[in-house]
């Protein structure tokens, strides 16, 4: 297996070698790394729910009632009333007819996109889409077209063209699927959803919206960037591991969509159902998100201090090694912001990606702003 050493050497040579850091505390605003207490500014735990006592209690109760594992795939013998209760709650939350759980956002994206776009169809994908969306597109047999980030003019031009050039097999259906993130995970900017839906309407396309960083954060009730009661041509994916502080993901859409995905989405069919603890914790989070808007208000107050469109901020440095050096310096100041390098972001755009959450104190945010001026 000498080739492994060689491959690793090449990654190291480019300054792109990654390794795991051990977090020795519950996931919160203050975390312990190698015996040091740091303020965590690189978490997706936007509402601070990951270690919330109510989620922990709900997880414990779910374990007492249903055990540690769910034992099988949902279609075999792994489906419980908890799974269904969470799905109907999420459907109401999104104002959709139905919702279907997936084990993670990654599972959802790689499972659903190939079902929505098949051979003969065309996928239009934003150039900054998350790796899991890219993989979902790769698994589809549809033709893939990548458009410039949030560039709806270019997208419209592409939609105007006939589905496939002469010579290629023109699909009987020729459906079009636009795939985008709602809040871009590495940039922190938003997709122009209203205009995008207008385009989709004009050209008969469907929009697949990844709301991983939007649910729990945007919307009057935390429902995300997409308003409640989404139009039929909008399919929303939300995750439960970020603002929800738990684990899992869901698709919100029509009842037909749910039925069809249960029958066709391979990452739903061929995997063990989410464990009861995760489902129980998600149910508790759903309740808190809908009933306690004050948590979201704290989040947006902190976002306002730093000044941005979402809780995600991107400080581009460019060079990978310099980025990691900046991250290391901040750690010495007691601030933890992980450096982000290719392939998570395009070559030459390595950056510090930082996030603020509802539970950071004003003093911690001040400290962040002061320290950022140093780099
Ligand atoms: C985190 C993330 C995912 C994956 O979700 P998981 O539940 O963590 O697997 C998908 N899409 C985007 C945009 C993400 O940021």
Question: Which key terms come to mind for this protein?
Answer:
globular, 7-stranded mixed β-sheet, alpha/beta, 375 residues, 14 helices, 3-stranded mixed β-sheet, binds pyridoxal-5'-phosphate, single chain
Distance between the termini: 41 Å
Low-confidence stretches: none
Using only C-alpha atoms, the radius of gyration works out to: 21 Å
* Structure annotation, total helices: 14
Give a short account of the largest sheet.
7 strands, mixed
Quickly give the structural class. Answer: alpha/beta
Strand ordering within the main sheet: 3-9-8-7-6-4-5
Instruction: Categorize the overall geometry.
Output: globular
**Topology, number of strands:** 13
Let me know the average pLDDT.
95
Helix content: 40-55%
Q: What ligands are attached or bound here? A: pyridoxal-5'-phosphate
Helix and strand run: HEEHHHEHEHEHEHEEEHHHHEHEEEH
Give the DSSP E fraction (strand runs of 2 or more residues). 15-25%
């Amino acid at each position: 297996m000498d080739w492994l050493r060689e491959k690793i050497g090449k990654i190291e040579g480019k300054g792109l070698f990654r390794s795991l850091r051990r977090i020795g505390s519950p996931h919160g605003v203050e975390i312990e790394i190698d015996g040091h207490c740091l303020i965590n500014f690189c978490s997706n735990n936007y509402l601070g729910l990951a270690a919330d006592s109510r989620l922990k209690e709900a997880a414990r109760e779910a374990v007492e009632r249903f055990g540690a594992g769910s034992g099988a795939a949902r279609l075999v013998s792994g489906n419980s009333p908890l799974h269904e209760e969470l799905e109907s709650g999420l459907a109401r939350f999104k104002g959709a007819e139905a919702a279907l759980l997936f084990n993670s956002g990654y599972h959802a994206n790689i499972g659903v996109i190939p079902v929505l776009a098949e051979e003969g169809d065309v996928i239009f994908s934003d150039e900054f889409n998350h790796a899991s969306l890219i993989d979902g597109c790769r698994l589809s047999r549809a033709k893939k077209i990548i458009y410039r980030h949030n560039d709806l003019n270019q997208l419209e031009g592409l939609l105007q063209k006939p589905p496939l050039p002469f010579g290629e097999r023109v699909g009987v259906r020729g459906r079009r699927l636009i795939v985008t993130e709602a809040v871009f995970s590495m940039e922190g900017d938003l997709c122009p959803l209203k205009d995008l839906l207008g385009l989709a309407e004009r050209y008969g396309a469907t929009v697949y919206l990844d709301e991983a960083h939007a649910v729990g954060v945007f919307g009057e009730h935390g429902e995300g960037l997409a308003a409640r009661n989404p139009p039929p041509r909008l399919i929303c994916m939300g995750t439960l591991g970020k603002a929800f502080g738990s684990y899992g993901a869901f698709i919100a859409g029509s009842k037909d969509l749910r039925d069809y995905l249960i029958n066709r989405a391979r990452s739903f069919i061929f995997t063990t159902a989410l464990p009861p603890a995760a489902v129980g914790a998600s149910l508790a989070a759903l309740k808190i998100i809908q009933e306690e808007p004050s948590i979201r208000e704290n989040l947006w107050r902190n976002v306002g201090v730093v000044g941005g469109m979402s809780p995600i901020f991107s400080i581009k440095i460019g060079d990978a090694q310099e980025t990691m050096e900046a991250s290391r310096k901040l750690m010495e100041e007691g601030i933890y912001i992980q450096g982000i390098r290719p392939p998570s972001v395009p070559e030459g755009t390595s950056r510090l990606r930082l996030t603020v959450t509802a539970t950071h104190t004003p003093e911690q945010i001040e400290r962040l702003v002061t320290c950022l001026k140093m780099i």
